[in-house]
Amino acid sequence: MPLDAFILLGDALWLDFVNTARGRTAFPSDRLPDAQAYADWCALQHLDGTADPAAFPRVIEFRDRLDELAEALHAGRQPPGGAVAALNELLARSAGTRQLTRVGGEWRLQFAPARPLAALEAIARSAATTLVDAATVVRSCAGEACSLLFADDSAGSRRWCDASACGLNARVERRRGLRG
Length: 180
Prior knowledge:
Layout: H1 13-18, H2 35-44, H3 56-75, H4 81-91, E1 96-103, E2 106-113, H5 119-132, E3 137-140, E4 149-152, H6 163-179
Antiparallel strand pairs: 1-2, 3-4
Helix pairs in contact: 3-4, 4-5
Protein backbone atom coordinates (compact mmCIF):
# COMPACT_ATOMS: atom_id res chain seq x y z
CA MET A 1 0.00 0.00 0.00
CA PRO A 2 1.45 3.41 -0.88
CA LEU A 3 2.36 5.45 2.18
CA ASP A 4 0.29 8.42 0.99
CA ALA A 5 -2.82 6.23 1.35
CA PHE A 6 -2.61 6.71 5.13
CA ILE A 7 -4.27 9.77 6.66
CA LEU A 8 -2.34 11.10 9.65
CA LEU A 9 -4.57 13.89 10.96
CA GLY A 10 -5.60 12.51 14.36
CA ASP A 11 -3.04 14.55 16.32
CA ALA A 12 -2.49 11.44 18.44
CA LEU A 13 -0.87 8.19 17.38
CA TRP A 14 -3.77 6.08 18.57
CA LEU A 15 -6.33 8.14 16.63
CA ASP A 16 -4.22 7.84 13.47
CA PHE A 17 -4.37 4.07 14.08
CA VAL A 18 -8.16 4.14 14.54
CA ASN A 19 -8.51 6.32 11.44
CA THR A 20 -7.06 3.54 9.28
CA ALA A 21 -10.62 2.15 9.30
CA ARG A 22 -12.23 5.55 8.64
CA GLY A 23 -12.10 8.14 5.91
CA ARG A 24 -13.58 11.05 4.02
CA THR A 25 -16.21 9.06 2.14
CA ALA A 26 -19.47 7.48 3.21
CA PHE A 27 -17.97 3.97 2.99
CA PRO A 28 -14.19 4.23 3.45
CA SER A 29 -11.99 1.26 2.69
CA ASP A 30 -9.92 -0.28 5.46
CA ARG A 31 -6.35 0.95 5.09
CA LEU A 32 -5.07 -2.05 7.07
CA PRO A 33 -6.43 -4.97 5.04
CA ASP A 34 -3.47 -7.21 5.85
CA ALA A 35 -0.30 -7.57 7.91
CA GLN A 36 1.83 -5.92 5.22
CA ALA A 37 -0.32 -2.77 5.28
CA TYR A 38 0.06 -2.71 9.08
CA ALA A 39 3.84 -3.02 8.68
CA ASP A 40 3.77 -0.14 6.17
CA TRP A 41 1.74 2.03 8.56
CA CYS A 42 4.15 1.22 11.42
CA ALA A 43 7.11 2.16 9.24
CA LEU A 44 5.47 5.47 8.33
CA GLN A 45 4.94 6.16 12.05
CA HIS A 46 8.52 5.05 12.89
CA LEU A 47 7.21 2.18 15.01
CA ASP A 48 8.53 -1.35 15.31
CA GLY A 49 5.58 -3.47 14.23
CA THR A 50 7.77 -6.59 14.17
CA ALA A 51 8.21 -6.40 17.96
CA ASP A 52 4.49 -6.97 18.52
CA PRO A 53 3.85 -10.54 19.58
CA ALA A 54 0.21 -10.23 18.51
CA ALA A 55 -0.99 -11.82 15.30
CA PHE A 56 -2.60 -9.47 12.78
CA PRO A 57 -6.20 -10.35 13.78
CA ARG A 58 -5.34 -9.21 17.35
CA VAL A 59 -4.02 -5.93 15.93
CA ILE A 60 -7.38 -5.33 14.23
CA GLU A 61 -9.25 -6.39 17.37
CA PHE A 62 -7.23 -3.84 19.37
CA ARG A 63 -8.03 -1.17 16.77
CA ASP A 64 -11.73 -2.00 17.16
CA ARG A 65 -11.43 -1.56 20.95
CA LEU A 66 -9.75 1.80 20.45
CA ASP A 67 -12.49 2.81 18.03
CA GLU A 68 -15.05 2.06 20.77
CA LEU A 69 -12.97 4.17 23.17
CA ALA A 70 -12.77 7.08 20.71
CA GLU A 71 -16.51 6.98 20.05
CA ALA A 72 -17.24 6.95 23.79
CA LEU A 73 -14.91 9.89 24.44
CA HIS A 74 -16.38 11.83 21.51
CA ALA A 75 -19.88 11.25 22.91
CA GLY A 76 -18.82 12.26 26.43
CA ARG A 77 -19.39 8.75 27.82
CA GLN A 78 -17.18 6.72 30.12
CA PRO A 79 -14.58 4.55 28.37
CA PRO A 80 -15.78 1.00 27.70
CA GLY A 81 -14.35 -1.54 30.14
CA GLY A 82 -13.09 -3.75 27.31
CA ALA A 83 -11.08 -0.88 25.84
CA VAL A 84 -9.54 -0.02 29.21
CA ALA A 85 -8.68 -3.69 29.79
CA ALA A 86 -7.01 -3.89 26.35
CA LEU A 87 -5.00 -0.75 27.11
CA ASN A 88 -3.94 -2.04 30.53
CA GLU A 89 -2.87 -5.36 29.02
CA LEU A 90 -0.54 -3.63 26.58
CA LEU A 91 0.69 -1.06 29.09
CA ALA A 92 1.65 -3.90 31.44
CA ARG A 93 4.08 -5.26 28.81
CA SER A 94 6.25 -2.16 28.99
CA ALA A 95 9.23 -2.74 31.24
CA GLY A 96 10.90 0.34 32.64
CA THR A 97 11.16 2.69 35.57
CA ARG A 98 9.65 5.94 36.78
CA GLN A 99 12.06 8.85 36.62
CA LEU A 100 11.98 12.45 37.71
CA THR A 101 12.34 14.86 34.81
CA ARG A 102 12.11 18.61 34.59
CA VAL A 103 9.51 19.80 32.08
CA GLY A 104 8.81 23.49 31.62
CA GLY A 105 10.43 24.36 34.94
CA GLU A 106 8.37 21.79 36.86
CA TRP A 107 9.32 18.35 38.13
CA ARG A 108 7.32 15.44 36.78
CA LEU A 109 7.41 11.74 37.42
CA GLN A 110 7.54 10.02 34.03
CA PHE A 111 7.85 6.46 32.81
CA ALA A 112 11.13 5.62 31.07
CA PRO A 113 10.87 2.38 29.07
CA ALA A 114 13.70 -0.14 29.42
CA ARG A 115 13.50 -0.95 25.69
CA PRO A 116 11.93 0.65 22.63
CA LEU A 117 8.17 0.19 22.69
CA ALA A 118 6.53 -2.22 20.30
CA ALA A 119 4.00 -0.55 17.98
CA LEU A 120 0.90 -1.65 19.90
CA GLU A 121 2.50 -0.59 23.19
CA ALA A 122 3.20 2.87 21.76
CA ILE A 123 -0.37 3.09 20.46
CA ALA A 124 -1.72 2.04 23.87
CA ARG A 125 0.46 4.63 25.61
CA SER A 126 -0.86 7.33 23.24
CA ALA A 127 -4.47 6.36 24.02
CA ALA A 128 -3.80 6.30 27.76
CA THR A 129 -2.19 9.74 27.58
CA THR A 130 -5.26 11.16 25.84
CA LEU A 131 -7.57 9.45 28.32
CA VAL A 132 -5.90 11.02 31.37
CA ASP A 133 -5.50 14.49 29.83
CA ALA A 134 -8.61 16.46 30.80
CA ALA A 135 -7.68 19.25 28.38
CA THR A 136 -7.80 16.97 25.32
CA VAL A 137 -11.14 16.07 23.74
CA VAL A 138 -11.68 13.44 21.06
CA ARG A 139 -13.77 14.83 18.22
CA SER A 140 -15.24 13.49 15.02
CA CYS A 141 -14.71 15.65 11.96
CA ALA A 142 -17.67 17.89 11.13
CA GLY A 143 -17.12 17.27 7.41
CA GLU A 144 -20.30 15.90 5.88
CA ALA A 145 -18.92 12.54 4.70
CA CYS A 146 -15.80 12.46 6.87
CA SER A 147 -15.58 9.98 9.75
CA LEU A 148 -12.03 10.78 10.85
CA LEU A 149 -11.32 11.38 14.53
CA PHE A 150 -8.85 13.83 16.04
CA ALA A 151 -7.59 15.01 19.40
CA ASP A 152 -8.59 18.60 20.16
CA ASP A 153 -6.74 20.52 22.84
CA SER A 154 -7.87 23.93 21.58
CA ALA A 155 -10.62 24.49 24.16
CA GLY A 156 -13.25 23.03 21.85
CA SER A 157 -12.89 25.37 18.91
CA ARG A 158 -11.69 22.86 16.31
CA ARG A 159 -14.37 21.26 14.11
CA TRP A 160 -12.55 19.55 11.23
CA CYS A 161 -9.79 16.99 10.90
CA ASP A 162 -8.22 19.28 8.31
CA ALA A 163 -9.50 22.83 7.90
CA SER A 164 -8.01 23.07 4.41
CA ALA A 165 -9.92 19.99 3.22
CA CYS A 166 -13.09 19.26 5.19
CA GLY A 167 -13.38 22.79 6.60
CA LEU A 168 -12.94 24.41 3.21
CA ASN A 169 -15.53 22.09 1.64
CA ALA A 170 -18.03 22.97 4.38
CA ARG A 171 -17.51 26.71 3.89
CA VAL A 172 -17.87 26.39 0.09
CA GLU A 173 -21.09 24.38 0.45
CA ARG A 174 -22.46 26.89 2.96
CA ARG A 175 -21.76 29.77 0.55
CA ARG A 176 -23.41 27.90 -2.32
CA GLY A 177 -26.48 27.42 -0.16
CA LEU A 178 -26.61 31.12 0.65
CA ARG A 179 -26.24 32.13 -2.99
CA GLY A 180 -28.48 29.51 -4.58
